[in-house]
Structure formats: C-alpha cells, structure tokens
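Final report, closing paragraph on structural work. Over the funding period we assembled a curated collection of sequence-structure pairs, and we close with a single example.
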Amino acid sequence: KELNHRVKNLFAVITSIVRLTGRNETDTQLAVTKITDRIMALSRAHSLSASQDTKEVTDLKTLIQTLFTPYETPERVVRIEGSYLELTQETLTPLGLLLHELATNALKYGAWSTEAGGRIQISWSAETVETEEDNDKTFVTLYWNETSNSALRPVDFGETGFGFRMMDMSLRQLNGDVEREWNNGLNLVARFHAT
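Its predicted structure, as stored:
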C-alpha cells in the first residue's frame, strides 16, 4: 500500500510538471529540457527518500549537496551552513523540488546567469517545539542568498512563472511560507515543518 501510494504521488507530481511546464513554454525543445531537469531533480530526491527505507538517514546538507553537485563549477559556488537536520521521507520530495527550482532560477536570472558567475549561500536554523498533541514538531527556517559577480536585471516577483509557483506548491506541502526580495540576486527566507 505504501509503495502504491508513493508511486501515485510521483505520477501526480510528474503529470503536474509536464502539464504546467507545457502550458508556460512555447519552445518545444526548451520545454523538454525543463521537464527533464525537473524530473531528474525529483528522481534525485526520490532516491534519497528510498534510501530511508533501508534505514539510511538523509539530512538537509546531504540533500542540498546531492541536488547541487551537477550545477557547481569554479564560477558557480555553493556554500552550505547549518546544523545537522534529519529529514523525514515526506519532506524530501517537496524540499528537493523547491531547491531545484531555486537552482534553476539562479541559472536563468540570478547569481549563476552570467559568465562571471556568483555565489549561493544556503543556511538554516531549526527549532523543536512541543505541540498540544504532545508530540514534537521541528520548524525550519531556510535562508537562500545569492551574490552575483556582475550586475543583474531585477526580477519582478509579481510576474512569476511556473518555477515560483512550483516553489510555493512545495512549501504548501511542508505547511510553509516564503519571503522573497531581489538585491542583485535572490534573497529568500522559507519557513516550514520538517517533521
């Protein structure tokens, strides 16, 4: 039953990726590339969640490193800071998709969009709170800060495309919210439940 549930969820996410990307992209080849990249990010996040079934633990730093390794070059730097934070299987897929969309936007508009490159700083803090149901919940605040080595065109968040909608959908799955601002690169603060 659990496997069937997971497969149905994956198919639902893939269908959503295909449908929404196709609706927003008129260039067929570019649509295929975007769909492929998004499904590969989903696959990497799913691989980490599958490893939890074998009792391997996945933490936030490992998820970030797994997702960002394909993007890094000497011009594209990622700095990761934060205490050890174990992730539940339910958080891996939406968080993986959120991080993938952030990386994609950095490549398209942000710190990694020029030959000069730039740096992305990812950090987080976590707070465990006892709830009325007498169980602990971990609340995470994730910070994403881009620094570009050249001047960038500002992004208007009022005219966001599918990538930002995908981020918002992922955060809703995590009972989270987000604040964005542009300062020659995206600065983002996302808050969500990790357990």
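The chain has a mean pLDDT of 82. The helical segments are 2-24, 28-53, 60-68, 89-108, 162-173. We thank the funder for supporting this effort.
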